[in-house]
Design brief:
Length: 255
């Protein structure tokens, strides 16, 4: 009887120890940081991930009223960030994630407007794919535009995955931050000063899709669509400046 009891205890200890070792050896899931920078994709060798965080402009306050402003041009060319899209690209929208103040039914038009702006200088054809309910970034071959949760002062975060050897994009996700107030003015001159304009911010993010970098020099770029800060009541990013256009064209149309 003693021998049987000893054998049972031994086997229990053996398998318990095996389970503990197995648990220790199981690799933890590695996440892409929500911080501006270039990262190696931990699960896909040869793939780089560029994270771009669109920040709110410091010191801007809301007046709670409609504001109208000019849409001045800027001729300073925006810089290439190091990747480019294929000639045809499919995107996937998440209308169910859109705040009611913007309207999920408007997302298709908002996205099409922005893609049309960037298609002209690049020659890239943007085609809508099936809608999705995804609202988080992932390398899943769905190039999503959705509202979701983002940390800190990010108005939106775009994740670009591309081959490190060629710079060709393989997956893009843009997450607009639900934390902030959003509206859609459907205008290039007037917007509500108490909210961020959905098309204004999204057009900036779509610039990252085609390969445009953020620019933070206010003297040269504050009127550019690719200026790195966004403000409430701002709609000037809805239309590209000549510097946005020339920067994008240089990526795709130059030999």
């Amino acid at each position: 009887m003693r021998k049987l009891l000893f054998a049972i205890v031994f086997l229990f200890a053996f398998f318990a120890g095996f389970s503990i070792v197995g648990a220790k050896e199981k690799p933890e899931k590695r996440e892409i940081p929500e911080v501006d920078g270039v990262y190696d994709d931990p699960d896909f060798p040869g793939i780089k991930v560029r994270v771009l965080v669109h920040k709110e402009k410091p010191g801007k306050t809301s007046t709670g009223s409609l504001v109208c402003s000019l849409d001045p041009d800027s001729s300073t060319a925006v810089h290439w960030a190091g990747w480019k899209l294929p000639s045809t690209w499919v995107y996937n929208l998440n209308p169910s994630s859109v705040p009611t103040s913007v309207g999920g039914g408007n997302l298709e038009t908002i996205a099409k407007n922005g893609f049309a702006d960037w298609s002209a200088p690049t020659g890239v054809t943007f085609n809508p794919g099936s809608n999705t309910t995804i609202n988080r970034q992932a390398y899943d071959l769905k190039n999503i535009i959705a509202w979701g949760r983002a940390q800190g002062s990010a108005l939106a975060v775009t994740y670009i995955r591309y081959y490190s050897s060629t710079g060709l994009v393989v997956d893009v996700d843009t997450i607009m931050n639900l934390k902030y107030p959003w509206k859609w003015a459907n205008s290039s001159t007037c917007a509500d000063s108490d909210a961020y304009d959905a098309e204004n911010i999204l057009t900036h993010e779509q610039g990252h899709w085609v390969g445009m970098n953020d620019e933070y020099n206010a003297t040269s770029y504050q009127n550019a669509t690719m200026y790195g800060y966004g403000s409430k009541g701002e709609v000037k990013k809805v239309t590209l400046t000549s510097g946005d256009v020339s920067g994008a064209a240089a990526i795709y149309l130059s030999p």
